[in-house]
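Have a close read of the entry that follows and walk me through the local backbone shapes. See right below:
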Amino acid sequence: MAANLKEKVADFLAQENIAVAGVSRNEKSPGAANAIYKRLRESGYHVYAINPNADQVEGDRCYHSVKDIPDKVGGIVIATPEAAAEQVVRDCVDAGVTRVWMHNGIHSMGTSVSQSAVDYAVEHKMSVIAGACPLMFGRPSDGFHRFMGRALGAFGKLPK
């Protein structure tokens, strides 16, 4: 398991198959999940949308659970309400997914970080990034998100 945030991020973003839990059927949704899903897809990742109430999002097939995805998923971004995060992590354990990234948004976007979900993931030897946004790092990043990442890092607000 990676020891620090930089290593965890590099390991997570090295995966080609990434799922995003919490993608909305409403393509104009201001939620983070749709933005992350689209950016990962545009950056060349094979990305899978997860929403238990949708069969299609962003013009792509949507899975009700990570357990329904027929391919091996290297990691999952959890951008659901915090209360749903533990169930998503439990599903990941059942599906053999070993990397989870619980999104933490700014202001009204809320967080997907659940301490019980983090504890369950750690208990099952998963690599966990509990906070921040994948759009702050690597090939899916953009100027605004990189700036936010630097600012959060300067104030000690990035996950360990």
About this structure: The helical segments are 5-13, 32-42, 82-95, 115-123, 143-154. The radius of gyration is 14 Å.
